[in-house]
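Help! Submission page says 'invalid entity' but I think these are all valid:
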Amino acid sequence: MNWKCFLAMLARDAQVARRNFFALLLQTFLQPLMFVFIFGRVMVGSGYMPPSYKSLLLPGIMAICMVGTGIWAVAMPLIAEFQFTREIEDRLLAPMEISWLAVEKVVAGTLQSLAAGFMVIPAAWLLLRPGVDLNVPHPLLFAVVAVLVALFSATGGLALGCSMQQTHIGLMFSLIVAPMIFFGCTYYPWSALEKFPILQRAVLVNPLVYASEGLRGTMVPQFPHLPLLAVVVGLVFFNALLLATGLRSFHGKSVS
Amino acid sequence: MVGIRTRDLRKVYTSAPPFAAGGGFGAPTKFGKRSKQPKPEIVALDGLTLEISPGEVFGLLGPNGAGKSTTVGILTTRVRPTAGQAWIGEHDVWKEQVSVKRLIGVVAQRPNLDFSLTAREILLFHGAYFGLDSQQRAKRADDLLERFKLRDRADQMVRGFSGGMMQRLSIARAMMHDPQVLFLDEPSAGLDPQTRLLLWEIIREYNQGGKTILLTTHNMEEADALCHRLVIIDHGRSIALGTPGELKSSVPGGFVLRLRFAQHSTALLEGLRSLAGVREVRVNDQSGADLYADRGGSLIREIVTLASAASVDLNDVHISEPSLENLFLHHTGRSLRE
C-alpha cells in the first residue's frame, strides 16, 4: 500500500473542497435548515406541532445533511470524472492499486459527511432554541454511530457514482435519494409507523432508517428508537454491501 | 533504460470500447454464439507482437479504429487484454500494475486534466502521487511550466485553457515524475504548427535523456520526423514494421498516382503497365486504378494520351510523393484517412 500516494490524493480532495467551501456550505445546509426553521420554529411556534418535535427533528436533519453531503461528495465527481471530464485518469495511473483510489474517495466523503454532521448541530440548535433537549449519555457510542452514518453516505456515493450515467443524475435524486429521505424516518421516528405495519417493515431495507434512528437513539434517547444494536448491525451490513458493490463497479469503470 | 514488449496481444470488446481505449473501433463486428442474446464483439487487437528497444522513439501508425489506443490502453494498465501478454521492462503489465505505473507517463488522446485545480497544482499533485518531495515538486513544476510556455497561466484554473494549452499541460504532467517510458496518444492533434514544432523538440530532447517513447499518430509527417521505427497497424494487426526510410522504400517506385476513369478497359490497363517507370498497377473497381511508379507528374501526359487513344475519359488524378501514406495504401488498398 502506497500511503504517500493515498495521502496526496486526500490532500487533492481537501484542496478541491476548500476551494468550493461556500458553494458546498450552501448546497448542504440551506434546504435542511429552512426545513428546521419552518417545521421546528414556525410550526411549533404557531402550535401546529408539539414543542418536543424540535428535539425529535434535530437527529433526522443531521442524518439528512450527512447522507446528502457524503453521497454528493463521492458520487457527483465520480459520475463526471468517469464519463465526461475523465479527470480521474491521472489518479488511476498513479502508483497505487486502483481499489485504494476508491477507498480514498470513501475516506474523503466520510470526513466531509462528518464535518457536515457536526456543523449542522450548532446551526440547527441556534435556529430552534430554546427547547431543544439534547442528551448524549454515551458519547463514544454516538461517535461510533456518527462514523457509521458518514461511512454509509460515502459508500452509498461510491456505489451510486459508479453505476449511474451522467444523464440519470436527476433520476438518481428523484428515484433514490428523495424516497430514501422521506421513508428514512428522518422527520419522524420509526415507531410512528406502527399504524402502518407493512410500511414499517418495508422501510427497514432503507439504510437511512438505521442512520436517523441511530442518531436519535444516541442524541435524544428519550424518544422511542430502534435498539442501538440493530442500528449498528444494520449500518455495518449496508456499509459492507455498498462498499463491495462500489468497489466492483469502480473496477468495472476503471479497466475495460 | 526500459523497453516495451508485447506478445500476441488480442483484445475483443463486448461493448463499445470505453474511454480508456480512446473509444475508437473499426474492426469487423461479429456476434457471439453462446449467449442467448448475442453481444456484439469488436475485435480491436488481433495478435499484436511488438518489441520496442530501450531508448527508442517508436510510432504506432494507423487509421482511426486500427487498435492504436487499445494497444496504449493495455500497455498503461487501463485495458485488460483478452489474450497475450505485455511487458514494460521486466514487469508484466497486467500482473505488476503498480511497478509498471511507476515507470510510465501517459498522455491520453483527449485532455483529461483535473478541472478542479490550477495548472501548477495539477503538476504538484501529480508529483505528490509519485512520491516526489515538496522541493523537488516545486522545482520540476516550475521548469516544466517554463519549458511548455505556460508560466503566465500557471496559477489559473485550467477550465479556461485553450485546447493547445491543455495538451501542453497534459504532456508536462506526464513528464512530471520523469518516467522511463512515455506514451503519447496522438500528441499533436489539434496543435498549431508552432506548438507542434515545440512539442517535437521536447519529445526529441526527452528521448536524448535515454527515455523510451511510444507515440500513436495518423500524421505521416510526425511519424517521419520523430520515430526511429514504426509499425503500421490495421484492424488490430501489424502490417509493416521498420524505420520510416525502410518502410517508404518498400513501396514500389515510391510515387502513387490514383486515377479515376469513367470506366477503364483491359487495353488501357495494359498500356498503363507498359509506361516507363510504372512498377505496379492496382485496379480498385470498374473506374479506379492506382499506379505505383518511380515518377509522378511527368507521367500525366502519357496517361492522358493512353486514355484518349482508348476513348476513355480520365476524371480525376491524385499524385502523392513517396510517403508513409502510400505505404499504408499499398498494404491495405485504403488511404489512412478513409
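Support: the input was valid. A stray whitespace character was the problem, and the output above is from the cleaned input. The radius of gyration of chain A is 19 Å.
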